[in-house]
Amino acid sequence: MIIILMGVSGSGKTTIGARLAQALGWPFYDGDQFHPPANIAKMQQGIPLTDADRWPWLHALRAHIETCVHQGVSAVLACSALRQAYREHLIIADAEVKLVYLKGDYDLIRERLAQRQGHFMPPGLLASQFAALEEPEPGVVIDIVHPPDTVVELIREQLEV
After folding, report:
1. What pLDDT shows up at residue 123?
2. Distance from C-alpha of 56 to C-alpha of 103, rounded to nearest angstrom
3. Which residue ranges in the chain fall short of pLDDT 70?
4. How many CA atoms are closer than 13 Å to the CA of 46, on its beta-carbon side?
5. Which of 39, 74, 76 is nearest to 55 (CA)?
6. What does DSSP assign to residue 35?
7. What is the pLDDT of residue 11?
8. Residue 4: which of 128, 147, 155 has the closest Cα?
């Protein structure tokens, strides 16, 4: 099984993903590591990514997911996957790739981003993330108001892993 944790920047994808992967004994992959350098440079400059910017990144993520599925390797992947078209591109097999939406309101996430240090995504791009977000239906939706360990347990309960 591949679990994709999706949501806007600051929703806790990396924190939750690392903890979930550790609890399951699976590898964790941060989708940000698959961005081409040009995308990271744009975000560092406070420039929102376009769909044209995102597709090479999404193709790299899909290739990684396909490799894991074909090798029978379970994994946790953190990836914003803000639009339905992106998710359709990544979810190559419904039985093997599960989506979890880490949902939080704008004010909570803005507060978290303001406290975050050392990340290339500046808080000023949060509005563009929410503007691009197409909330998934159906699927597993977890409210990120809970502490990270509780979120991990909620995910495990919902996915029965």
Report:
1. 58
2. 25
3. 116-124
4. 2
5. 39
6. S
7. 94
8. 155
Helix residue spans in the chain (DSSP H): 13-24, 37-44, 51-71, 84-90, 106-115, 126-132, 148-159
Residues 6+ away with beta carbon under 8 Å from 151: 12, 16, 102, 142, 144
The burial of 110, by beta-carbon neighbours within 10 Å (0-12 exposed, 13-18 middle, 19 or more buried), is given as middle
Six token digits for residue 137? 């239906």
Q: What is the distance between the alpha carbons of residues 58 and 123, in angstroms, rounded to a whole number? A: 22
In eight-state DSSP terms, residue 74 is -
Residue type, 70: H
Domains in the chain (CATH in brackets) are: 2-159 (3.40.50.300)
Q: Is the whole-model pTM more than 0.85?
A: yes
Burial profile 57-78: b = 16 or more Cβ within 10 angstroms, e = fewer: bbeebbebbeebbeeeebbbbb
